[in-house]
Amino acid sequence: MAKQVNVGEIVIDKLQCEGALGSFDLITHxxxxxxxxxxxxxxLQAHITLQEAYNLPQYIPFMGEETIDxxxxxxxxxxxxxxxxxxxxxxxVHDLSDRFLKTPKSQRYSLDLVSEQYMSNLHAKVSKSYADxxxxxxxxxIWSNYLDDDKDLFVEETERNEHIIIPNWHPHDAFxxxxxRATSIEDDAAHNFLYYESMDGSNFISLNSLIEAEPTLVFSxxxxxxxxxxxxxxxxxxxxxxxxxxxxxxHKIKNVKRGQYSSKLITHDIVKKKIVQHDFNGFNEWFAYNxxxxxxxxxxxxxEIQTGNTYRTSLAPPFDPDMAITxxxxxxxxxxxxxxxxxxxxxxxAKDIAHEYDNRxxxxxxxxxxxxxxxxxxxxxxxxxxxxxxxxxxxxxxQVPSPETTSHGKLDVAFDKFLSGKYMxxxxxxxxxxxxxxxxxxxxxxxxxxxxxxxxxxxxxxxxQGAS
Length: 468
Known about the structure:
Layout: E1 9-19, E2 22-25, E3 30-38, E4 45-52, H1 56-59, E5 67-74, E6 85-86, E7 91-103, E8 106-115, H2 116-122, E9 126-134, H3 135-146, E10 152-155, E11 161-169, H4 171-181, E12 193-198, E13 201-206, H5 207-211, E14 218-221, H6 231-235, E15 238-241, E16 243-248, H7 252-257, E17 262-269, E18 274-281, H8 282-285, E19 339-344, H9 361-373, E20 378-385, E21 395-399, H10 404-408, E22 421-434, E23 440-450
Parallel strand pairs: 10-13, 14-15, 14-21, 17-19
Antiparallel strand pairs: 1-2, 1-5, 1-23, 3-4, 3-22, 4-8, 5-6, 5-7, 7-8, 9-11, 12-13, 16-20, 17-18, 20-23, 21-22, 22-23
Helix pairs in contact: 3-4
């Protein structure tokens, strides 16, 4: 039976470097090991800082052809199961940096590492056509042929068959391109697929499906006076964090330029010589798929700018005249703020004269653009003791204290109503450091992101209507 005594103490069972002249144990020389998971990055990366007097760079030697195997477990886990072990994929050394003599008889330097899959992707190109395959099937085929590294691949099922050609791309470039047009079979309004690698394996999955999961933990900024090891709190699903950092809130101008609120898409069928305009209302679209908060991050109030009194520019006949946005004072009406062009082709990749294929760009392009931009909105970072089972893509509840409680002491204002709530873990920095007497500590820097708010944004009355 497993027994855990401190979530911040770990044992490094293996930190083995395989070089040209043999295998070398790096544990006794380790100063710090950082492993980076990021839901918006295709692969894992890591960074090791070593301090030693043996001159390993000469005896291994480090030439960028070395691999490192790592296995870590919690100090207090007895009879540990596989789930209690931190065992990332094999890493490859790709750079030796920051090397200097700390004393006449010791040196300090860093090794930059990438996962095995990163190296496989770097050396591979895919040149292949796919007809009548769904996107999830295409991803599975490419992964099994070029990237299979003995870790699992988790793929979410996608809608409709595709007829495409992968034109001599690296596998990850192909995955990222496929993710832009993938549609969830569960929700045809969700176009937010990602391909990323975690310590458990690789994932081709939509943010929409990840959001559906219930929060696994509650993060809050509280002193650990009565629970120094954090065991009691963690057992109850509660993590007492050491620090909360406000990374990002919103960037109105950047959001406007990127088409988060509204945009135009001009499609051009070069065979039929047909050009069409598609107007996008980001506020209305927000309600069509899953979110981490019940309310959108804006009220869509009437604005006060002069643009509200002008008609929108018509660049082509509208796809649906009844749905065309020609005027309006709300930010979601200003479709001229972002205009994109995309080609269509009536017989794209056609097998014969009777075969038709439509890339349906008007269904996914603007939606994908908005849905990904929303995850560049409210972003927090917490620092806490290491928790081995946490992975990117999980959802948690974050309780952000309100400074108002300092002076008022009211329970109803204990937490910030806009920032508190359900978040997704979008990045993790696992930090393992050598402490006194050869012990190792484990802490995490966890990035949390949300695309919706827990409380409705009040409607704002404009001060003026602009010159008519």
